[in-house]
Amino acid sequence: MTYRLCVIPGDGVGREVIPCAVEALQRALPGLVTVEADAGWDCFQRTGNPLPEATVAKIAECGAALFGAVSSPSKKVEGYRSPIIQMRQRFDLYANLRPTKGLEIGGYRPVAAPSISDPQSSSGRPAVDLLIVRENTQGLYAGRERMQGEEAIAERVITRAASERIARVAFALARERARRHVTIVHKANILPITDGVFRDAVRAVGAAYPDVTIGEMLVDTAAMMLASRPAEFDVIVTTNLFGDILSDVASVWGGGMGVAPALNLGDGVAIAEPVHGSAPDIAGKGIANPCGAILSAALLARHYWQLPDVANRIEQAVYGAIESGVRTPDLGGQATTRDVTAEVMQRI
After folding, report:
1. What b/e string do you get for 281-303 counting C-beta neighbours within 10 Å, with b at 16 or more?
2. Does 200 qualify as catalytic in the annotation?
3. Catalytic residue list contains 92
4. Does domain 110-254 have CATH number 1.20.200.10?
5. Whether 281 is catalytic
6. What CATH topology corresponds to 1-94+260-348?
7. What distance in Å separates the CA atoms of residue 348 and residue 346, rounded to the nearest whole number?
């Protein structure tokens, strides 16, 4: 079988880490065919379009894409809209998967006080292994913003159908995990209509998965728990903005933003992306952490191409490299982007 990948480096450090991820994926999956494409703020400045139709066509042709980063302006720029949000909506990439696996790096990150119920690592720290499943097309990211006189209004869009389909993804993935537990995160006490629809739809879907236990938590409590007791969680399912924020909080336990992977998954197309952004402060210095991009490529192998052995090899190589001490400065090391990539390649 031929596996095709649309490669979109994007802006800033995306142009440095995405080639590393492609190398690692090609090492683990010989014969991978890559197709280059363009998108992002730099693309917009050159062409007037942040997501050219030629790029959309290449994504559709390949089915799988690896996107680097985007430098979005903080103020509205006429004609510009984030290309990754456009991709999610045009290809109906309704599920965003954000896993976090705990890393034990001495002196790097805070250590939560374990509870009696927490699974323990060999060091006595909580063994963090969680997955955030985020609805990816609606909520406050639906793009419905407008001015009404002196009022700036954003509409939060939640539908039962979208809530049900993200719930099916969450419960199906939870069924494959050891703990088989889903936590529904919402704010229905303050947003009873929109979050009420989401919570009730997810619970209704969960009834079809009797082997998966269900809990629920308000988003502010979930943020506190992720910051202090992350081992309490297995799979979290939540709405778009909440999932975006909570997954960044959770990333602290997996080595920070430089190690955090993500996958935008639809029924026929998947786009993987590291979540660290374009990082203009370090772009061009050769010290960007490639691990998030490489682990994102592994998510493509696992969830789109259904190649768990390939994904396992890549993931084990990345975590092995980090634990061996080959780390970029964001993890307290002195290795360059290429140093880390070389170590990962050798381990694959």
Report:
1. ebbeeebbbbbbbbbbbbbbbbb
2. no
3. no
4. no
5. no
6. Isopropylmalate Dehydrogenase (3.40.718)
7. 6
